[in-house]
User: What shape does this take?
Amino acid sequence: MTAPDLELDCRDLRCPMPVIELARHLGDVEPGRVVAVVAYDPAARVDVPAWCRMRGQEYVGEDLADDGAPRYLVRRSA
Assistant: This one.
């Protein structure tokens, strides 16, 4: 899986906060770079890909953070 350029720790946040954090920090990386959202909230599995579709960003997929927490990867579009 793609190594993220920025990882957001949203482990303790509930819907919709992981997606709000993603929106706030996506601009912190250059286009083509990857932001990872680490979140235990099960809604993030649906919310992050849906947000990407609505915002024209690339959902790269899901893997696990070093501690085993779900991690959702988003590549910033131009």
Summary: The beta strands are 6-9, 34-38, 58-64, 70-75. The longest helix spans residues 44-55.
